[in-house]
Design goal:
The protein is 32% helix and 21% strand. The strands form four sheets. The protein has a seven-stranded mixed beta sheet with strand order 8-9-10-1-11-19-12, covered by helices on one side. A six-stranded mixed beta sheet has the order 14-18-13-17-15-16. A four-stranded antiparallel beta sheet has the order 4-5-7-6, covered by helices on one side. The protein is globular and about 65 Å long.
């Protein structure tokens, strides 16, 4: 039997349980209400945006980066003094400028510039340190471009003066290297794997995948390297990826366009695909052989068969709508019999055996296979060697190839011709990976006579122009996307969100 004391204890305990239960229920209701009222932007922060890419970047130091993925990521991690508008005209980014004399350019930093991701203020001392570092860096592809700088004078925290060794009317368009913190440059910080800039995205981690965070709203973005295009599409369809851009064959793009859960945006492209040639090779250094190779490729058929819509044949590195694009240059036609004739005139015994290097990307291998069949009709036996991206790109930079295929991305100024075709721009001083040397073309490039230089390049064929790739972007229906940029940059990562 219960005593009166035990009854009282029981009643108190029951009241406590009821109070605790009511409190938990009210707390649960409150949590549900808070979640229901949670701002959309706060919800978005909790979910990572997965961006599936064909190739991970190799180097996140803007002074060294030269592959497409690295350039695209670095645009988001760092900011340069200037950038370019849609017509490839130079515009202010971090700074405005004033031409004091043909050899003196003053830059003034913007008052509303963002700080570095480590919290320090970006000043002219950081700008000077970034460009001064090219004097001591080894094996950077941009060093030759800034050899014309005599010295840089800091006037104050907002103003600095570049003094040039000689007149360079296009110098302003060259200062597009992302600015790095002076203190970290002096401390020999490893920007290549742990970047610190002041761009809209900041570095978080880079283990298996590269993880970035948007400064504006703390949105996490993960770059997933998925080399196989079919697997990349499957990941998008299964929701394992939220967005992808480029590097897909047209049939997969068409498949995505037919999916109700996916939206696709397309646009004209300006990225230049080309066939690289080793001019140190005893056979390929002959102009007639290079011309034969050009006439042995049916670019129209390749574009029609396996390229995305809006892809165009190329006659020069810069597209015809560019102010230095030279719209009078026409692509080389497919003429296999004429190619055979040129090879015979060059004293080549048929079939001519050549080796073509490419990456293991399925689309690139597919292009190589089609070229192999086309060239066979022209008396050329093409051997294909596909390598993992790192090995392939290193071979290209070192000149270990006969032929290779690559794409220039994000080209804005005609100085690309100097970087790629001038004899003084051979690696590590520039991008003349084919070791091409022609005194007449050097003179035209030094004079910046772009119409004559591009015509001579078209005639001499240091590389073989192929096409300007059309652009597209595919994403989950819930994602906000826009028309992709003509150069295929990844700037949309600064604004993309779930709707």
């Amino acid at each position: 039997m219960c005593t009166s004391r035990s009854k009282l204890c029981t009643m108190v305990f029951l009241k406590y349980l009821i109070f605790l239960l009511l409190f938990c229920l009210s707390a649960c209701d409150l949590n549900e209400q808070l979640l229901a009222n949670l701002d959309v932007n706060d919800k978005e922060k909790q979910a990572v945006i997965n961006f599936a890419i064909a190739q991970a970047p190799l180097n996140l130091d803007p002074r060294y980066a030269s592959d497409a993925a690295s350039e695209r990521v670095n645009r988001l991690l760092y900011q340069p003094l200037v950038d370019f508008d849609e017509s490839s005209k130079v515009t202010p980014k971090l700074a405005s400028w004033k031409i004091i004399s043909p050899t003196q350019i003053q830059f003034t930093l913007s008052d509303n510039r963002a700080p570095f991701h480590n919290g320090t203020t970006l000043t002219t001392h950081d700008v000077k340190a970034t460009y001064d570092s090219f004097k001591t860096l080894k094996s950077t592809p941009h060093t030759a471009e800034f050899n014309g700088i005599d010295h840089i004078q800091v006037l104050d925290d907002l103003n600095l003066m570049f003094y040039l060794k000689s007149k360079d009317k296009d110098f302003v368009s060259k200062v597009i290297i992302g600015i790095l913190p002076k203190a970290l440059i002096e401390a020999k910080h490893d920007f290549s794997r742990s970047p610190i800039g002041n761009g809209p995205l900041q570095f978080v981690a880079w283990d298996q995948t590269l993880q970035l965070q948007r400064v504006r709203d703390k949105q996490l973005i993960r770059l997933l390297e998925v080399k196989d295009p079919t697997v990349r599409v499957l990941k998008l369809l299964r929701g394992e990826a939220d967005v992808l851009q480029g590097d897909l064959p047209p049939e997969l793009v068409k498949h995505l366009q037919d999916q109700p859960s996916i939206k696709v945006a397309t646009g004209k492209g300006a990225n230049f695909s080309y066939l690289g040639i080793n001019h140190a090779d005893p056979i390929l250094k002959q102009a007639k052989v290079r011309r034969a190779v050009a006439h042995a490729i049916d670019t129209k058929a390749i574009i029609k068969t396996i390229m995305v819509s809006s892809t165009r044949q190329a006659g020069a590195t810069l597209p015809p709508e560019h102010f230095a694009g030279n719209a009078t240059l026409t692509p080389y036609d497919y003429q296999p019999e004429y190619a055979k004739q040129l090879l015979k005139e060059a004293g080549i015994a048929l079939p001519l055996k050549l080796t073509y290097k490419t990456s293991t990307d399925a689309q690139r291998v597919r292009i190589a296979t089609i070229m192999q069949a086309q060239m066979r009709k022209a008396g050329i036996e093409l051997s294909i060697k596909s390598l993992d991206w790192g090995t392939f790109f290193e071979d290209v930079k070192q000149g270990h190839f006969q032929l290779y295929g690559l794409t220039w991305v994000g080209i804005k100024t005609p100085e690309i011709y100097q970087k790629v075709y001038h004899s003084g721009a051979m690696p590590p001083l520039g991008f003349n990976r084919g070791r091409f040397a022609n005194a007449d073309i050097d003179a035209l490039l030094d004079q910046e006579n772009w119409p004559a230089a591009t015509a001579a390049i078209h005639q001499t064929l240091p590389t073989i122009p192929l096409w300007y790739e059309g652009q597209f972007m595919a994403a989950q229906k819930r994602m906000s996307i826009t028309t992709p940029a003509t150069d295929g940059n990844w700037d949309m990562l600064a604004t993309i969100h779930r709707e």
